[in-house]
Structures are given as C-alpha cells and as structure tokens.
Amino acid sequence: MGVSLSGLVKGKETNIEELRGRRIGIDAYNTLYQFLSTIRDRFTGEALRDSEGRITSHLSGLFYRTAKLLENGVQPVFVFDGEPPEFKKQTIEEREKTRSEAERKWKEALESGEIEKVKTYAQGATRLTKEMIEDAKKLLEYMGIPWVQAPSEGEAEASFLVKNNKFWAVGSQDWDSLLFGAPRLVKNLTITGRRKVPRKEKYIVISPEIIELEAVLSSLGITHDQLIILGILIGTDYNPGGVKGIGPKNALKLVKEQKTLENVMKHVKWDFDVAPEEIFGFFKNPPVKDIEIEKPEFRPEKIREKLVEEHGFSEERVNSVIEKINEAREKAKQTGLSRFLG
C-alpha cells in the first residue's frame, strides 16, 4: 500500500540487463502479496493450490520470477517485515475488514458470472499467512538467496541497508522507501513483461524503473524532510487516504509554501488518531539493524523436494529452472560476479 507519489514523480525506465551485478533489497511482503494477487485463475480468481488445497501462488512467483533475476545477474536479498509500529495496528485491522468485504463481493461476482469483478475482488481478498511466509523463507534458502528479518518495517530496513552500501537499491512497488531515505528505488523488478490492461483488451510492456531520491528532491524543489511531510499529507500506511481534500499537487504546493510540519499542520484538518509528528519521527528514525548478508547454500535437491514432491509442481519445469540457475552461477564465476551469485 504505502504512499503514492506516482502523480508527482516519474521513474527512469531501464531493463533487467542494466541491473546486472546489483544487489537489491526486495520488500518481501510487498512482493509476496503481488504474487498472491496476480497469479490466479483468470475465470474464478482462485489462487494456485496443490492437491491438498494449500495455496502455492506465492511459491510459484517466488521461484520462477526470482530465478529470472538470477539468470540476469541480479542478486536479490528479500527483507521481511518485523513488528509494525503500534500506530499501524488500526490500519492493519481496517485492511482485514476490507479483505473480508472483498471476499464477500468476490463470491457474489462468481455467482453472477461477472469475470472482471471476480478478478478485482479476488485480488482484494488476498491474505499472506505466517505459513506462507515460512514457506517462502525456506524456498529462498534452498535457492541460495539470502533473506533478512527486519526489526520493524521491511522497507525501513532495506532503505537503511542501501544507505550503508549493503544494497544498491530497494526493490518495491511502494514509494515508502524514499520517505525512509533510500537513495535508490527500483520498481517493477518482479513484474516485467507483457501485461493486460484491466477491463480492456489491450496489453502493455512493463519494464523496471529506477527512482533516485536526489533526483526526486531536485525535481520537486523540496528537502527530504519536506518529502516526508508531503507523503503524510497524501497518505501513508499510518494515515491511509491522507488529509481530506488535499491531492498530490496541492500537497506539494502547501509544503513548498509552509516549509515545516508545524506550519503545514496549521493549514489542514487532521482526522487521524496518530499525531503527524509521530509518523514523521518514524520515517526519520525507524527501528533498523546493521547486518552482514549471509548467503545460504544452493540446494537443488531441496527445491525439488519442496516444490515437486510436497506441492506437486511440474518436475520438468522445475528442473529446467534449476539448470538455468546453475548456468547463471557458472556465468557469474566467469564474469567476476561470483561474490553475488555464489
């Protein structure tokens, strides 16, 4: 979810080959939700399931799409959320209500045969469970891909590690990492390719985009502190929807005129339980920790056991991807990228 700066900020389009040799800290929850939302039956909206009814959409996306990154010499490190701040709990509760309502509408749309509504509501009903998260961590380990447990928000931790040169960029569909001070954000990292436009018989090509914090601040003519204020006005995970009646352009104008959070708040009506100063302080100084990235051993036999034997994935397809990962590892050794890919 997070803040949306898309109306104000445009990324620089690139291609996956240009990211070769880059270590990117991927927002794990954001990415897993993305897989769970998009990898579904086109007619029923149901997630992929194995013979025992267990959801496997997240594992499918994680395996096949992350393997593509490895094939292109990109080193992903997944960063998982820890304990959310206390003032996010209300947002989490409201999201659960929204998911329950989407689930109800999904069932109604299925009965009435409204295919487009089926897909929309099915995506809105997506849930990420503890079991899914643990399964994802195990699969990453078997693939030889590191993961990091954040003390709090995953994007805050990933941003901190970019600032400390452990990662080159944060990989996420959300903009929040810029508010957390990440010098560089990569969007569309795991959704590149041809995609259908919702409710239209039209397809577009999605490519990775790089957004650099300094370029954003320069183009908007504001400081990083003011970017945080701008985000708070538009709406963050901690005050969803933002201040009523203030869109991105008006928010930018107000921030440039009033400069500080104190002055800005004199000109708006704040309808949230959490104080704006508390949100601002969290973006400035979130709970984070410095770590060394430890690379797990690549274990093809465990991948087969997990995906083929446990969840019924196609053995032929899984073996094909394992072979491609092996080829990528060999190529990395020959081109001097072995420190990234083993």
How would you characterize this protein structure?
It is a single chain. This protein is α/β, with parallel strands linked by helices. It folds into 2 domains: 8-220, 3-Layer(aba) Sandwich (Rossmann fold), CATH 3.40.50.1010; 221-284, Orthogonal Bundle (DNA polymerase, domain 1). 49% of the residues lie in helices and 10% in strands. The chain contains 15 helices and 9 strands. Helix 1 (28-38) packs across helix 2 (57-71).
Overall tally of structural domains:
2
SSE string, helix = H, strand = E? EEHHEHHHEHEHEEEEHHHHHHHH
Task: State the helical fraction.
Answer: 40-55%
DSSP strand count: 9
Strand content: 5-15%
From the 3D structure, determine the CATH topology of the largest domain.
Answer: Rossmann fold
The assigned structural class equals alpha/beta
| Separation, N- and C-terminal Cα atoms | 34 Å
Rg over alpha carbons: 21 Å
Number of helices: 15
State mean pLDDT (0 to 100 scale): 90
Task: Based on the coordinates given, report the CATH architecture of the largest domain.
Answer: 3-Layer(aba) Sandwich
Largest sheet: 7 strands, mixed
Question: What order do the helices and strands come in, and which of them pair?
Answer:
Blueprint: E1 12-13, E2 23-27, H1 28-38, H2 57-71, E3 75-80, H3 89-112, H4 115-124, H5 130-142, E4 147-149, H6 154-163, E5 169-171, H7 176-179, E6 184-187, E7 193-196, E8 203-206, E9 209-212, H8 213-220, H9 224-234, H10 248-258, H11 261-265, H12 276-284, H13 300-310, H14 315-335, H15 338-341
Helix pairs in contact: 1-2, 2-5, 2-14, 3-4, 9-10, 9-12, 13-14
